[in-house]
Design a protein that fits this description.
Structural class: alpha+beta
Number of helices: 8
Strand content: 25-35%
CATH architecture of the largest domain: 2-Layer Sandwich
Low-confidence stretches: 270-291
Order of helices and strands: EHHEEHHEEHEEEHHEHEE
Distance between the termini: 43 Å
Oligomer: single chain
Strand order of the largest sheet: 1-3-2-9-5-8-6-4
Helix content: 25-40%
Number of domains: 2
């Protein structure tokens, strides 16, 4: 399973509050009733930025764009991205709903779980570090230091201080050309050497990375030896799992839109036709004409 991620923020003229409403309510409703989207994405999580986290708490700076959202779509293979955003039902249903800035960051990632507490369940407070490697450092050398030195340092420093899970996300090849005519045409692609996700019990535990002098000294030094700190960035977020069809212990039933006999599937197209009675909100089955 691989992850297609989109990091973004509200579009000009929109407030953060409105952006979160559009994304968490309207966008989700459109996704859950869009057949090609639900066939393609195996898991979808939204991450809402925790606003106002001070610089002294962060190990890495906030991005200059002050990103507000991090969306994570799980897919089986890279080729699944294009059908998910080019199918007719997507273009008709999803594309007209514009709520985010044209500027965004797109990544394709393969995750590796380094640490997971027994009984872990997704959701809640997370910190996402998006990492730039220093000039002159190869990707192979970066990943060797990341997994071999930095990862164990994180687990050692935070494993008994509220860390619930820790994942290293390695980048996969993603071409900007495939997004040329889509809503993601202005997104920046393939800028980073990796992303790490850290789940915590609460915000206080997450902040300990910066407020605990011992932890900050260890992890600050580890990051400084591994990444280009000024060009890397961090997000403190709340994770919300919208749907998940694949995770052990967390998987949920497939959505109604994929059942041809369901009202959701029939109202969205399927074997129903739009006739005069539908104007009153009552679609009519093509076969019987019954309401």
């Amino acid at each position: 399973m691989i992850k297609w991620t989109i990091t973004s923020r509200h579009k000009p003229g929109m407030t953060t509050e409105r952006f979160y409403y559009e994304w968490s309510v309207l966008h989700v409703a459109l996704m859950l009733t869009n057949a090609s989207t639900m066939r393609t994405f195996r898991r979808y999580t939204q991450h809402f930025a925790i606003l106002g986290v001070p610089r002294e708490v962060r190990l890495l700076p906030q991005h200059e764009m002050a990103w507000e959202s991090f969306a994570e779509h799980w897919i089986d293979q890279p080729e699944d991205i294009l059908p998910s955003i080019q199918n007719e039902d997507y273009l008709g249903r999803m594309r007209p709903h514009s709520f985010s800035d044209a500027a965004m960051e797109l990544q394709l990632l393969a995750g590796e779980t380094v640490f997971q507490r027994e009984g872990f369940r997704s959701g809640g407070v997370k910190v996402i570090h998006t990492l730039k490697r220093p000039e002159g450092t190869t990707q192979d050398a970066f990943e060797a230091g990341w997994a071999g030195r930095h990862g164990p340092a994180v687990v050692s420093a935070l494993g008994d201080k509220g860390l619930r899970k820790y994942v290293l996300d390695r980048p996969l090849r993603l071409e900007s050309e495939q997004f040329k005519t889509s809503l993601f045409a202005h997104g920046k692609v393939g800028q980073y050497a990796g992303t790490e996700e850290l789940w915590f019990d609460d915000l206080e535990s997450a902040a300990r990375m910066g407020t605990d002098p011992e932890v900050r000294a260890v992890l600050g030094a580890s990051l400084a030896s591994l990444v280009d700190v000024p060009r890397s960035h961090s997000m403190y977020v709340i994770e919300r799992v919208v749907f998940d069809f694949v995770t052990d212990g967390e998987a949920m039933p497939r959505p109604a839109i994929l059942d041809p006999s369901s009202a959701e599937a029939r109202v969205s197209g399927g074997d129903w036709m739009v006739t005069a009675p539908a104007l009153a909100g009552w679609p009519v089955p093509a076969e019987t004409g019954e309401r």
